[in-house]
Amino acid sequence: MTDPIAAGGPAPDAPWWVLHVDLDQFLAAVEVLRRPELAGRPVVVGGDGDPLRARQVVSTASYEARVFGVHSGMPLRSAARKCPDAVFLPVDRPVYEAASEEVMRTLRGFPVEVEVWGWDEAFVGARTRDPDALARAIRQAVLDRTQLSCAVGIGDTKLTAKTATGFAKPGGVATLTRPEWLTVMGAKPTDAIWGIGSRIAARLHALEIDTVAELAGADWDRLAGAFGPRTGPWIASLGRGGADTEVSSTPWVAKGRSRETTYPADLVDRDEIAAEVRTLAEQVTRDVVAEQRIVTRVALKLRTAAFFTRTRISKLPEPTVDPAVVAARAVELLEKFPLDRPVRLLGVRVELAPPEEPADPD
DNA sequence: TCTGGGGTCCTAGGACCC
DNA sequence: TCTGGGGTCCTAGGACCC
Description:
Layout: H1 4-8, E1 16-23, H2 26-34, E2 43-45, E3 60-61, H3 63-66, H4 76-82, E4 87-89, H5 93-108, E5 113-116, E6 121-127, H6 131-146, E7 150-155, H7 158-168, E8 173-175, H8 178-185, H9 198-206, H10 212-216, H11 220-227, H12 231-238, E9 256-267, H13 270-290, E10 295-304, E11 309-320, H14 323-334, E12 343-352
Parallel strand pairs: 2-4, 7-8
Antiparallel strand pairs: 1-6, 1-7, 2-3, 5-6, 9-12, 10-11, 10-12
The chain binds a DNA duplex through residues 46-47, 54-59, 72-79, 81, 91, 117-121, 194-200, 227-231, 234, 254-262, 297, 307, 309-315, 345, 347, 349.
């Protein structure tokens, strides 16, 4: 029952632990909170909430909906087919942002480092002799303050902590450390590792590396040769439970911002395409100017009806905050595309100058 | 199942300069 | 003058994640 952190603050000479906090079915849970009558019902959040409209996908499904095989990334129409009785709701970003902020504030109430990883996730770093008590205290505090349930993974690296969370879901606490890593993960396929997706798994397979244990035993130079000087060693370290133990409360600073739209019907008219590009460019510029940031590069993304995606990017002669300048450059980039195919998606991304250092008062 | 939107980091290759 | 090597900047694309 002793909880050195909750009871007496941080323990400077205690071991460093990495905790991973992951909110359960976050979007759906927030929606149920604001509409208590939905409790216990299958809830699907995605797109504009219209399950009949094409080209929209599920953002989050409640556990009641997951039972029917509904999961994130699935087209909304498929979800509707699998679970016709589900309640379909539109994505409401400001509400999730506010709920997320409340959760993160709760975490920061502990004497720990808090590194936010999106709306529904954070890493927590702490020196403590009782990480399990800390994890349970965090879970309880989040539940008390926000009525939201989370799972907490405890580890000695970000990777082990994140992996432990998978075993803790929903709403529990689990621990995994590097000494136990191979016992628990060794027999699993390489893409069970956070950071290794289907493409890298396929390339590893070509090297006759199929399991986590095989990856752990793989030759580093061979991996560096196959994947490059940074990616190779990084993949090798993942096979052993990862090496990243750093958790930092330093606020995240965006390097870029983007706005993109998949259109319900393909665009074919050049002027219409240009007008949409202009709109996206002006929007994203307003977004970043509101955050007092300055645009240095402009990228245009275009996806055809056949799902062929290409990007063109260019650096501005000088940084700008002028939506018209960004829009003009984005439209210029459009000329680099043949525009001989129907367009399904357009996106404008801006890259940003590092924020100004706060002025020295002296 | 016809496939969203918003991010990050890494690699590779060409241009250009010394 | 027919040929090298290194460094930096820039763009395109790949891969991953939530």
